[in-house]
Write a structure and sequence with these properties.
The complex is a heterodimer of chains A (about 200) and B (about 80).
Chain A lengths: L2 E9 L2 E4 L2 E5 L6 H11 L12 H14 L13 E7 L4 H9 L11 H4 L6 H10 L5 E5 L5 H14 L4 E10 L2 E10 L5 E2 L2 H9 L1
Parallel strand pairs in A: 4-5, 4-6
Antiparallel strand pairs in A: 1-2, 1-7, 1-8, 2-3, 6-7
Chain B lengths: L1 H14 L25 H15 L9 H4 L3 H11 L2
Helix pairs in contact in B: 1-4
Classes of the chains: A alpha+beta (about 200), B mainly alpha (about 80).
């Protein structure tokens, strides 16, 4: 039975790691400043972060939070670490921002920096580039979190595809609405069993 | 041209989201790419858009890009020479 070795939640301008509240930024109510506060909390030095869209920023800091005391690259080969994420609005948040740069024929200046983020799976690439992961990756768009589907998909990766660790979860960003629940699955380490109900509970907590 | 150089520094920081970098941190003679500000190919495209949107300029030849976008100073020189 595989295990969940750590989990994080980013919601309501707060960050929880393994159920412990580690950042409360609720006085600001600005997503970009909140994401920058998480970046600072982690002590990151990664200038590319500031060029990313909100979805990639959230995925990147989420992965960083999961891994900060668990350097999985020391335990597993790069090819054995997968990233599997899901959300409901794909990259709609940055799609809208990009559309604003092209909607006016008299002020038509398509932004390359926004365009490169107009796919939800870009967040997977950003996490893999930052951490050097070379395993399987997938991004699913679902109306709501389908914990049974994600569970089965990830178990299959562990059993059939020689993956030893998976960063998985839900990252939703759509204008002012956002929520990230991410968890690290390992084959043998972790206090929580990797089961659909436990995934659902992480999401609902 | 000094005024244009300072204006360009502010515009580059804004358009490329160079957080934690102030205009005075950028030496106008330093390379914008590689060892300088470490910009990448997407940033280069954003600089082309900046030149077009803010100064109504398009590069006459693609190969001019390397020289024009070498530094803030070379960008300012190109704008000064080509803006009507």
């Amino acid at each position: 039975m595989s295990r969940i070795s750590s989990h994080i939640r980013i919601e309501d301008f707060k960050v929880w790691k393994n159920d412990e509240l580690i950042l409360d930024y609720s006085e600001t109510k600005e997503l970009n400043k909140f994401l920058k506060a998480i970046y600072k909390l982690l002590g990151m030095r990664y200038m590319k972060f500031f060029k990313m869209d909100s979805l990639s920023k959230m995925g990147l800091v989420g992965a960083e939070l999961l891994l900060e005391q668990n350097p999985i690259m020391e335990k597993y080969q790069a090819e054995e670490i997968a990233v599997v994420l899901a959300n409901s609005s794909a990259s709609l948040d940055v799609d809208r921002k990009y559309y604003k740069t092209i909607k006016d024929a008299d002020n038509y200046f398509p932004s390359p920096g926004l365009f490169v983020y107009t796919l939800p799976n870009i967040v997977l690439g950003e996490i893999c580039i930052r951490n050097g992961f070379k395993g399987e990756n997938a991004f699913f768009v679902q109306k709501e979190l389908d914990s049974n589907f994600i569970y089965k998909y990830n178990e299959d990766l562990l059993l059939q595809k020689d993956q030893n660790a998976i960063i998985s979860g839900w990252i939703e960003v759509n204008e002012s609405s956002y929520k990230a629940v991410m968890y690290l699955i390992e084959k043998e380490e972790g206090e929580m069993e990797h089961l659909p109900n436990n995934i659902k509970n992480l999401f609902l907590t | 041209m000094d005024e244009l150089i300072e204006k360009l520094k502010v515009e580059i920081i804004e358009v490329l989201n160079l957080e934690d970098i102030e205009p005075e941190d950028i030496d106008e003679k330093d390379s914008l790419f590689n060892e300088g500000l470490g910009l990448d190919s997407i940033d280069a495209l954003e600089l082309i858009v900046l030149l077009n949107r803010n100064y109504n300029l398009r590069l006459e030849k693609d190969e001019d890009g390397i020289k024009v976008f070498y530094s803030v100073e070379s960008m300012a020189k190109y704008i000064t020479e080509h803006q009507k």
